[in-house]
Write a structure and sequence with these properties.
This protein has about 90 residues and is mainly α. The chain contains four helices and no strands. It starts with a helix and ends with a helix.
Length: about 90
């Protein structure tokens, strides 16, 4: 996978050894997320974990279909991936 990414993005200055600290791929067709109380809207005056996950952290951004507060679906995953990519483009 890293070799493939290097071939795809080398023209833009991407260097896999420098630019990738880790890659996690998770696709489990029957995965189900059961959010704890406070996940979507916060609890006890604290920021919700959902909002924290949707914010960029340095050069790291998370995109996942369940961050859209809908069921797991391709459309939600694509929208969340686009959001995460847009956040990353702010710093590169």
């Amino acid at each position: 996978m890293v070799t493939h990414l290097q071939r795809l993005f080398a023209g833009s200055g991407f260097i896999a050894r420098r630019d990738i600290a880790g890659i996690v791929l998770n696709r489990r067709g029957l995965a189900l997320f059961s959010p704890p109380p406070g996940f979507y809207f916060g609890k006890a005056g604290k920021v919700s974990p959902l909002k924290v996950l949707c914010e960029r952290f340095g050069r790291i951004a998370f995109g996942h279909s369940e961050l859209s507060r809908t069921v797991q679906a391709w459309e939600a995953a694509a929208a969340e991936g686009t959001r995460a990519l847009t956040q990353i483009l702010e710093v590169i």
